[in-house]
Specification:
This protein is α+β, with helices and mostly antiparallel strands. The protein is 35% helix and 22% strand. The strands form 4 sheets. Strands 1, 2, 3, 4, 5 and 10 form a 6-stranded antiparallel beta sheet that branches. The chain is globular. The protein starts with 7 loop residues before the first helix and ends in an 11-residue tail after the last helix. 44% of the residues are buried.
């Protein structure tokens, strides 16, 4: 592929604007980038008035920045809308204005494209028509189902809470969807697309239906063409309540949350069962299936960056990992991969029907390579993720509320209830003292430490204290209060 060339003015705008975005992987000025792809979009029949004058495109940038392990390069997606006149109501999404001069022929007001209804309309039309862009750099896909993609002539709203992605709700009164743009791209099929389509085909009510997606291409590091998902559309679950907020508020007042935790365990186990039915299981001897060595490697990799914040527990960590050697994970399958309370909604059940849980975002951990996220894994990883999330909710309650009174047993009560609900669907006892469970728990906690070091230092105490409690305990198991 031919690498695109940016105008000097646009290059300067991006260098100023990108570090201020929550989804951008670099939080300092220490980065460089080069364009590796460009997708040009045409406004479809839903793009609004013919005279909008919007020029719509997606820039794909290879961003290189330093980390503790050396330089890292991520490909990021930057949707852009250029207009001759300002776009009403999108001031906060403005990159800047480019005026034609002797070096720049381009001109206009440049916006983050996800805030422009014309851009969203063109994206939805790619899916609806199962079409490719004129230059062949992107193609839309539509899932055959009873759900209809909405038209962007209706209400379009960008969610403000996203971090690694950008999501837009489109509601035309007859149907509603949430369109998620993957900001940091990976080559290969995104697990959220594959898993979502499989669960939708199986009529799994514990997840929102997948409606369609868009694939794109760019120039890879070896100059070969790389392909991956740029965006996915899901059914929008109106009125859904954030399970994270429900748990944090409950913890802050000491409100019992065990009934909710138990039903969350049922929903998690049900999704695991449906994934095994739809996508099959694998023996641990399959490629990528050696769980214990992989967990040990991940723990050591995280420790290289997290150890200074958590330590000194080098000896304790090695002792814990030595107990992991030879542990068997049993049958493997596709899982969520990054399950926590923030990935779950409580959806109203309607007249005479109880509320239900809906599990979202099957991308897996965004810091992990997509090839690793696509391997069959041990369902216990999702279970551990949920138990860590109860601990996070308790920590967040103390951070957010000066008068919070979180009972000492709140986290463990939630954990026991979740495990009991899980066992209703998948019988058997999950041993929280087993070497594999403990190692997975530490793997998740150290991953959280690394994430907070890079993104939210003010939250660092939550996973650091949890890691210290585990590594400082005399036994092999996870401390109950962790």
């Amino acid at each position: 592929m031919t690498r695109p060339i940016l105008s000097p003015a646009l290059d300067a705008l991006l260098r100023s604007w990108l570090p201020r975005q929550r989804w951008f992987p670099v939080k300092s000025a220490r980065f460089s980038f080069e364009p590796v792809g460009r997708v040009r979009l045409d406004g479809g029949p839903d793009a609004g008035a013919p005279d909008t004058g919007a020029e719509l495109e997606v820039l794909l940038l290879a961003v290189t920045y330093p980390t503790a392990d050396g330089n890292r390069t991520d490909v990021v997606q930057v949707p852009l809308s250029s207009r001759a006149l300002p776009l009403a109501g999108a001031g906060a999404a403005l990159l800047g204005e480019i005026r034609a001069d002797g070096t720049d022929a381009a001109h206009g007001w440049i916006y983050d494209g996800v805030h422009d209804p014309a851009f969203i309309a063109a994206w939805l039309e790619l899916m609806r028509a199962r079409a490719a862009t004129a230059d062949g750099t992107a193609a839309g896909h539509l899932v055959d189902s009873d759900y209809r993609l909405p038209f962007a002539a209706g209400k379009v709203r960008v969610l403000s809470g996203e971090q690694s992605n950008s999501s837009v709700i489109v509601d035309d009164g007859a149907s509603a969807a949430i369109l998620k743009f993957f900001r940091v791209l990976s080559e290969g099929q995104n697990p959220e697309v594959e898993i979502g389509a499989a669960l939708t085909a199986g009529s799994t009510v514990e997840v929102p239906a997948t409606l369609g997606w868009v694939t794109g291409e760019w120039t890879g590091p070896d100059a070969a063409t790389a392909r991956g998902e740029l965006a996915v559309a899901h059914e929008f679950l109106a009125g859904g309540l954030d399970a994270w907020r429900l748990a944090v508020d409950a913890a802050s007042t000491g409100t019992d949350f065990t009934a909710e935790a138990r039903s969350l365990g049922v929903a998690t186990a049900t999704v695991h069962r449906r994934l095994a039915e739809a996508l099959g299981t694998a023996a641990e001897s399959a490629p990528g299936g050696e769980i214990a060595p992989g967990v040990a490697q991940r723990v050591r990799q995280s420790w290289a960056e997290a150890g200074a914040a958590v330590g000194p527990f080098d000896d304790e960590l090695e002792e814990l990992l030595s107990r992991l050697q030879g542990s068997s994970a049993g049958r493997l399958q596709r899982i969520h991969g990054d399950l926590h309370l923030g990935q779950i909604l409580q959806v109203p059940g309607g007249t005479g029907k109880p509320a239900r849980w809906a599990i979202l975002d099957f991308e897996g951990e965004p810091l992990r390579p997509i090839s690793e996220r696509n391997f069959p894994d041990v369902p216990l990883r999702d279970v551990v993720g949920m138990l860590r999330s109860f601990d996070y909710a308790a920590g967040a309650a103390v951070r957010e509320y000066d008068d919070a009174v979180v009972p000492a047993s709140w986290v463990d009560d939630c954990a026991e209830a979740f495990l009991a609900g899980y066992a209703e669907v998948t019988p058997g006892t999950i041993d929280r003292d087993s070497p594999l469970f403990v190692a997975l728990w530490l793997d998740k906690a150290l991953y959280e430490v690394v994430y907070e070091l890079r993104n939210r230092p003010d939250w660092l105490a939550i996973p650091v204290n949890a890691s210290r409690r585990l590594l400082g305990s005399t036994g092999a198991g996870v401390p109950a209060e962790a």
